[in-house]
Design goal:
Oligomer: single chain
Number of helices: 0
Helix content: under 10%
CATH superfamily: GroES chaperonin
Shape: globular
Largest sheet: 6 strands, antiparallel
CATH architecture: Roll
Strand order of the largest sheet: 4-5-1-2-3-6
CATH class: Mainly Beta
Radius of gyration: 19 Å
Length: 126
């Protein structure tokens, strides 16, 4: 089992050792399992995009490079100045907004709260 690194602990460097961080195998890990995590600052949001449709309504299978990125994401974490949305909200945004971030096999987007076009809410059924 690999050692979990405390991101707030000072690095101890002995004689002839380097202070460079050691590589960590992130394959197959979930965000909760990682020794480090991403904490957004200010009004930035960390979202996980919904997977794109890979098959059209007509049954055509799309290659990944031809698929438009999804414009709907689930809010994973928010900075201290972002107050409008709650974790777990489904947010609509422009398809090519934000900075891409990959932790392990999971892809995320980071962008400002002002980039959100709206929140998807469940409609009450009559």
């Amino acid at each position: 089992m690999s050692e979990v690194i405390n991101p707030t602990a000072p690095l101890s460097v002995g004689a002839g050792e380097s202070a460079a961080p050691q590589a960590i195998d992130l394959s197959g890990k979930r965000l909760e399992d990682l020794p480090r995590y991403f904490e957004p600052y200010g009004d930035y949001l960390l979202v996980q995009p919904l997977p794109p449709e890979e098959i059209t309504k007509g049954g055509i299978i799309l290659v990944e490079k031809n698929v438009e990125p999804p414009a709907i994401s689930v809010l994973v974490a928010k900075g201290p100045d972002a107050g409008r949305y709650e974790e777990g909200d489904w947010l609509s945004h422009a398809p090519f907004v934000g900075q891409h971030l990959q932790l392990g096999a999971t892809k995320f987007l980071v962008f400002r709260e002002e980039e959100v076009l709206g929140r998807l809410v469940e409609r009450e059924r009559p």
